[in-house]
């Protein structure tokens, strides 16, 4: 999937984030340069405290950089107001969290429809769209369940549906499988992989090296800088646009229970730690 | 923006319902404050409409002449000035001259005398004696229970008693033919009034406790000169009243050598001196009730702050899926406003319930007016706004990243 001709979705130029002042000053990001094209599935790896979550927060416009430039869809967002950022979040960005963050008072379909409310979509239309997207995740019969009646994997799929419902240009995922067992993890990764195949841009932060196999590009971060980027490697080696993935073409939700190969590789690597 | 409002309302109802008991308790806090204000306003409105109603039942064509004294303008803190003891400037000549004017159907002078009333076996101290003319019956509603009212034939040394006074003097309200004496003169009872429910009226006389005698008899207590506190004028019709008042003013002014030492008031203004006291009373009581409303408001703020703290993650999430600060402020403010509005509505209903229960012990009914409803709903919304804005702003100021990290 080569998108060389399309404009980059995200362009970061010397992005810096500083916390604290004086003695306590500390850079969480020390000059990140990154270009993300439409349709990439990026996995950001790195030890705790390397700044990967900070980077994701800035990409999601939940936080602001101290220095440098961030172009989203070719537009610099650094000087934009908070309310403009809120509007961009509601139209262009979908975020998936480690802890799902469903609102427990609201049923599944209302949770999924939530982003559309801030986009100004009327209620009935909102529920229709939410229902449609839940159908693609095979959760139609769970529409009126409450979140606590679902399993972890189901909750995360609902959360993914919510991130997708407003048809965002980028999807950000902060350790989306961090709270799930390996089986659910793979179902979720299949979903994300599926989204990727449908042309969505996904940026995922993870601790789990196994999951990087789903990504089209892997970025290693250390101490607020990018240590390695498979895209650079690829351009040097003139390898094809995509790292060969292990070919899971199984539909996400009906992952066969007996897929021993999948299970073996992941059961060993229980998630190392939480951020 | 209108669309978001609908959204916020739906959201707030959802939240309030899921925290049912909490919502009810907070609402009750506001409702108590609103109820007390509503009850006070309804009852005081009832009092103030009594006199107006009395004038209205007489066709609304009533005007009263009162001497202009400084007392009328005296403040409540210093009501006992020397002017209090002035003699009235109204004279019997004023009455006879006004009577002659066209467009006026009846004129009644009122001369009040305070005096002890004695029978052979009983004494009522400080009784009220009203000396007037037979036309008094025309300018005010009088129901004779037994006997007759004073008239031009039987006007010497006869009296009509209020029913309560009759009981106080003779131990019965069947006192026709009995005699009593006051200031050395003996009077025969020729009539007894029906018990009248309203001690508050535009004559400022509690007829229940008064003895009505003729003006001639009254003058004899005052060296043959009438000492009138008030003259009641009844015009032929409501339409003729303004003209009648103008003419009467001119005539009386002439009698008083051009001095404007009296005032003729009609319509709603008749009730004003009485109402002034009630207005002061009402505002004092309302101020006390407003304190409970503030307490209710603090309850709202308290519960909203709890709600904001509890829903920190939800706030973070809503922000991350695209809610702006204004959206968050709106959501929490609407929630506070709904609580206070519910309190306002239930307080209004409860207030009237309270007012009607109270009025069974009183001589008047609570009054209904849109002003009371507007005050009840308006103040409750104001309370919701004042005490809801701070929690809402606090919710909106939350940092989405920090909020989402809570309880991880």
Walk me through the structure:
The complex is a heterodimer of chains A (275) and B (408). Chain A has 275 residues and is an alpha/beta fold. In chain A, 33% of the residues lie in helices and 23% in strands. Chain A is globular. Chain A has one domain: Rossmann fold. In chain A, helix 3 packs across helix 4, helix 3 runs parallel beside helix 5 and helix 5 packs parallel to helix 6. The longest helix of chain A has 16 residues. In chain A, strand 1 and strand 2 form a beta hairpin. With 408 residues, chain B is an alpha+beta fold. Chain B folds into 2 domains: 181 residues, no CATH class; 171 residues, no CATH class. Chain B contains 12 helices and 10 strands. In chain B, strand 2 and strand 3 form a beta hairpin. The radius of gyration of chain B is 31 Å and the shape is elongated. In chain B, 42% of the residues are buried. The chains are: A alpha/beta (275), B alpha+beta (408). At the A-B interface, helix 2 and helix 3 of A face helix 1, helix 9, helix 10 and helix 12 of B.
């Amino acid at each position: 999937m080569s998108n060389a001709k399309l404009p980059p979705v995200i362009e970061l130029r010397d992005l810096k984030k500083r916390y604290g002042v004086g003695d306590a000053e500390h850079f969480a990001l020390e000059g990140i340069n990154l270009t993300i094209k439409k349709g990439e599935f990026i996995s950001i790896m790195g030890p705790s405290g390397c700044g990967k979550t900070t980077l994701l927060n800035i990409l999601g416009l939940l936080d602001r950089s101290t220095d440098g430039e961030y172009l989203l869809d070719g537009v610099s967002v650094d000087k934009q107001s908070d309310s403009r950022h809120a509007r961009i979040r509601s139209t262009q960005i979908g975020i998936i969290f480690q802890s799902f963050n469903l609102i427990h008072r609201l049923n599944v379909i209302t949770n999924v429809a939530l982003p559309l409310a801030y986009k100004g979509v009327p209620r009935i239309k909102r529920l229709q769209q939410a229902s449609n997207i839940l159908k693609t995740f095979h959760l139609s019969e769970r529409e009126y369940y409450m979140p606590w009646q679902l399993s972890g994997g189901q909750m995360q799929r609902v959360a993914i549906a919510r991130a997708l419902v407003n048809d965002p240009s980028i999807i950000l995922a902060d350790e989306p499988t961090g709270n799930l067992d390996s089986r659910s993890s793979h179902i979720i990764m299949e979903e994300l992989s599926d989204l990727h195949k449908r042309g969505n841009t996904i940026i995922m932060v993870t601790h789990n090296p196994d999951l990087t196999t789903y990504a089209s590009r892997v970025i290693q971060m250390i101490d607020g800088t990018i240590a390695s980027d498979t895209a650079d490697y690829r351009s040097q080696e003139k390898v094809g646009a995509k790292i060969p993935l292990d070919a899971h073409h199984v539909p996400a939700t009906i992952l066969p229970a007996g897929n021993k190969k999948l299970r073996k590789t992941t059961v060993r690597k229980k998630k190392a730690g939480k951020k | 923006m209108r669309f978001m409002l609908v959204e916020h309302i739906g959201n707030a109802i959802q939240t309030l319902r899921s925290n049912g008991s909490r919502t009810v308790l907070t609402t009750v806090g506001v409702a108590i404050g609103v109820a007390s204000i509503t009850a006070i306003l309804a009852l005081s409105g009832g009092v103030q409409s009594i006199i107006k109603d009395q004038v209205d039942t007489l066709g609304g064509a009533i005007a009263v002449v009162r001497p202009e004294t400084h007392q009328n303008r005296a403040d409540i803190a210093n009501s006992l000035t020397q002017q209090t003891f002035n003699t009235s400037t109204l004279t019997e000549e004023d009455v006879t001259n006004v009577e002659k004017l066209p467009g006026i159907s009846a004129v009644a002078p009122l001369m009040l005398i305070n005096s002890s009333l004695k029978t052979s076996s009983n004494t009522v101290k400080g009784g009220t004696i009203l000396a007037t003319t037979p036309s008094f019956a025309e300018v005010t509603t009088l129901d004779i229970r037994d006997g007759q009212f004073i008239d031009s034939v039987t006007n010497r040394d006869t009296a009509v008693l209020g029913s309560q006074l009759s009981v106080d003097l003779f131990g019965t309200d069947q006192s026709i033919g009995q005699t009593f004496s006051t200031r050395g003169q003996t009077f025969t009872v020729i009539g007894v009034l029906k018990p009248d429910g309203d001690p508050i009226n535009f004559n400022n006389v509690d007829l229940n406790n008064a003895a009505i005698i003729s003006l001639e008899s009254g003058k004899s207590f005052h060296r043959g000169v009438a000492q009138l506190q008030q003259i009641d004028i009844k015009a032929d019709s409501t339409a003729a009243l303004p003209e009648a008042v103008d003419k009467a003013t001119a005539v009386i002014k002439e009698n008083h050598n051009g001095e404007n030492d009296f005032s003729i008031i009609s319509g709603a203004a008749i009730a004003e001196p009485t109402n002034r006291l009630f207005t002061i009373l009402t505002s004092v009581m309302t101020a006390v009730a407003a304190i409970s409303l503030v307490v209710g408001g603090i309850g709202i703020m308290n519960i909203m702050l709890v709600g904001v703290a509890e829903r920190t993650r939800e706030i973070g999430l809503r922000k991350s899926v695209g809610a702006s600060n204004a959206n968050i402020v709106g959501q929490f403010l609407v929630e506070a406003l709904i609580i206070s509005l519910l309190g306002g509505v239930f307080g209004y209903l409860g207030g009237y319930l309270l007012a009607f229960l109270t009025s069974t012990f009183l001589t008047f009914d609570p009054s209904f007016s849109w002003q009371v409803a507007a005050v009840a709903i308006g103040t409750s919304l104001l309370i919701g706004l004042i005490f809801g804005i701070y929690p809402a702003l606090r919710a909106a100021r939350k940092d989405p990243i920090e909020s989402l990290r809570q309880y991880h």
